[in-house]
Every structure is written in C-alpha cells, then in structure tokens.
Amino acid sequence: MNDNELLSWLEKAKLGDESAFQLVYQATHQDVYRTVAFLVYNKQDIEDIVNEVYMSMWRTFQTYDPSRPFRFWLHGITVRLVQDWKRKTWRRIRLFERNRRMTCEHFDGTDKAVLQFEMQHELFSLVRQLSYKLRVVVILRYFHDYALEEIADILQIPVGTVKSRHYLAMKELRKRIEMTGGDAYVH
C-alpha cells in the first residue's frame, strides 16, 4: 500500500473508522516493529515502543505534512520514541546504580540472553553491536533506503553529522567482519 492510500485511510480513521486505522496499522506494523527491534534489544520494550508509536501517530496526525511521504513521518516518530525510551532507560539505570552503591548490593547489568535476542544473521548481529547513534543511521540508510539528507531530517541533526556517523559505522562494520572472518561485504 503506497503513502497516498495510507493517508486516505488515516483520514478515515481520524473520523472514527476503526477498520481504517486497523488497515493503516496492518500496512505499517511490521516495518515499525522491525525498525524498533533493530534499535532496542528487549522484546517487551520493543512492543511497548511500537504501541507508543501508534498512539503518538494518532495524537499528532494533525502535524503531518501531506507533501512529505507518510512513512518518512512515521519513521521520524519511531526514531524519536526510541530515543526517548533510551533516555528514560538510562536515567533508570543511573538511579538503580546509585541505589545499588548506596545499599552495596551486587548487580550484574550484562544479560547475555538479552544482548543476543533474535539475532538471526551475522550482519544484523554486527549492526546491533554498533553504538545507538551509528546503528540508527545504518538502519535508516540500508533498511529503509533513506538518503543521508533525509536521515538528517528525521534525526534533526546536520547532514555532516550523519555522513560522519555513516562513515564510522561502515568502518566499524568492516573491522568487525574482518575480525569474525565473515564473508559479508560492507561498502
């Protein structure tokens, strides 16, 4: 389903047609879910963020500019919500760590099972090891085929920063592929 068709269904949904919203959800859910899953490791967090994306989409549809692609707008919402979630998680971790130090409880924050969650391909595994800032550029560039200028727009950062992060991500991926002896090719 193309963006224009999605837009007309979303307009109907805003007028109260639940089946229209369900159609938009079905047409975009898999794409949104995969994007979040590439950026977040915990399955429950992924599902929570995806739900937030659709609630946010519903609440902010009035701000959507129909002259721009709908999925571009939806990916912007998705990335911003993942960034918000990461910020909140980081705050919780810092509070937890402060409390741990105060009570001298032992905490092992590395859960190997969570870090290895749903990694089916070697390249995806390597991408997931990148820092969030590099990973989000790779996901938007190669998974969603956005131009560097569009990525800058979604992330609301200068295009030069996107180019730099893209370069660093590719350099890091090449290095990791060489270390693992993998056959994957990264341009």
TrEMBL record:
Pfam assignment, any one: Sigma70_r4_2
Keyword tags: Sigma factor, Transcription, Transcription regulation
Domain of life: Bacteria
InterPro entries (alphabetical): RNA_pol_sigma-70-like, RNA_pol_sigma-70_dom, RNA_pol_sigma70_r2, RNA_pol_sigma70_r4_t2, RNA_pol_sigma_r2, RNA_pol_sigma_r3/r4-like, WH-like_DNA-bd_sf
Residue span, RNA polymerase sigma factor 70 region 4 type domain: 123-173
UniProt xrefs under CDD domains: Sigma70_r4
Domain RNA polymerase sigma-70 region, chain residue ranges per copy: 25-92
Homology family: Belongs to the sigma-70 factor family. ECF subfamily.
Protein name: RNA polymerase sigma factor
Organism annotation: Paenibacillus cineris
